[in-house]
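Notes for week 9. Today we move from apo structures to complexes. The key idea is that a small molecule is not decoration. When we ask for a structure prediction with calcium ion present, the ligand SMILES becomes part of the input, just like the chain. The input block below holds both the sequence and the ligand string. Read it once before you look at the output, and try to guess where the molecule might sit.
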Amino acid sequence: MRGCAVSGILGLTLLALAGPGLVACGGEGEGDGEGMPEEEGMTGDPDTETTPPPSPDPTKTFGEACTASSECVSGLCLQNQCSEFCSIEVANDCREVGGFCVPMQSGQYGCWGDLATGADDDDGILRVGDAFTRNLTPLHDADLFLVHVKDGVTNVIATPMGSVDLQVEAYSPVAEPFFTGNLGAGSVEEGVAVTTDEDTYVFIVVRDVGQTTSGYTIAVSQ
Ligand SMILES: [Ca+2]
Ligand SMILES: [Ca+2]
């Protein structure tokens, strides 16, 4: 999976001319399943376990170091940090603790990473053909979108409705950043062309990086 800057049709044309195999722009981050976090200290087969000694109630919360899930209030120790279980079907289900909702080797999902998106309810889930209108406010606000992308090139473009200077960031399903788009100043659209060979999803963050706030639209096309 890779991303390239797009500016409307121009960006699309450039990408098409470059052809497959171009990895120059934002070409790192082959995030397709690699580096998937593994939860630790999960309970084994109960039939074969002896009765464990009584252990103190877990006290550790999100982000605290752990070696076993039994140490965490949430019951989930992920990559040596207490995490929280989350649902990929809920937009920004990790909003309260920060981070992305990532798949674990168990098949469940846990909050991972560090992402502050503020208190607003602008986060959403988009598919090709969708367009949402949202607000970047207060200053330095960030909104998180799960965007379903299809085999080929999927364009995600954020267009200011006012003076806001916004930045578009793309992350793999396991929360690895693979593109940042910030070519223009205030009032200028930013975007990413996500190229992939399978139907999957990416996380897109639209962030206010200027000194004003305003609304914007985010649109997904192919
Ligand atoms: Ca917002
Ligand atoms: Ca910008």
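The two ends are 15 Å apart (CA to CA).
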